Amino acid sequence: MGAVGIQIVEGNPHLRSLLGWHLQQVGYWVHQSADIQQARDIFLSRQPSLIILDSELPDGDGLEFCHWLQQQHQALILMLSARNTEPDIVAGLRAGADDYLTKPFGMQEFLARVEALIRRSRTVSVPASLDYGDLKIDLVQRRVRLKNEFIDLTPQEFSLLYVLAQAGGIPLSRSELLRKAWPDEIDNHRTVDTHVLSLRKKVEIDPRQPNLIQTVRNVGYRFNVELVDANGTTQAKLGSRKPPIRPLSKVAEN
Known about the structure:
Layout: E1 5-9, H1 13-25, E2 29-33, H2 36-46, E3 50-54, E4 56-57, E5 60-61, H3 62-72, E6 76-81, H4 86-94, E7 99-102, H5 107-121, E8 129-132, E9 135-138, E10 143-146, E11 149-151, H6 155-166, E12 172-173, H7 174-181, H8 189-203, E13 213-216, E14 220-223, E15 252-253
Parallel strand pairs: 1-2, 1-3, 3-6, 6-7
Antiparallel strand pairs: 4-5, 8-9, 9-10, 10-11, 12-14, 13-14, 13-15
Helix pairs in contact: 6-8, 7-8
């Protein structure tokens, strides 16, 4: 159970801290979010197994965020709400919540609901890795393989590669990467550039002419999913030395 990650999305700081403390006491890894924007970034970077979601958040409707989470197909959702009428409960469940707990509630009931959902999560098939042909990103062990050989990445390099890969080819700005891939609040774009250079040295055929992690002018960086050809072969450092089959995007520059 200690390896299970739980994200608490709760606008009340006192309740958020209280729930987090009790969950940590029984062995869960806990990530806390105060609003939807922060919650979305933490979810994408940490991939928790269970979301504890308040129905009313400072920057938006918890039901709408619940619907977004459901579309990710990667986590179970326990919704907390002061709304206790039948229509409110039905609306929460229809939005994607797997369970609905009305406030106020007892801590033992809360922990029992969490335990029951975690048992369900172990029977749900969730992605344990991202697979890009020869490049495989193990989300459980936080390791990366190219052509069945492990690449020695630092924890920060892994987080950066994971966030870029999960974006599916969409360019991410340096500010977005700092929010999603760094555990602490940092406002230095050169930090991103430095880690991208380090990462390229480990996964690119020629770091001076990168193909896998591309620079996008006036935006930031993107993971070149087009580099995976029809046969699922990644033209990366340990892959074929032939040039990529598909041309690079015109917006990408080194």
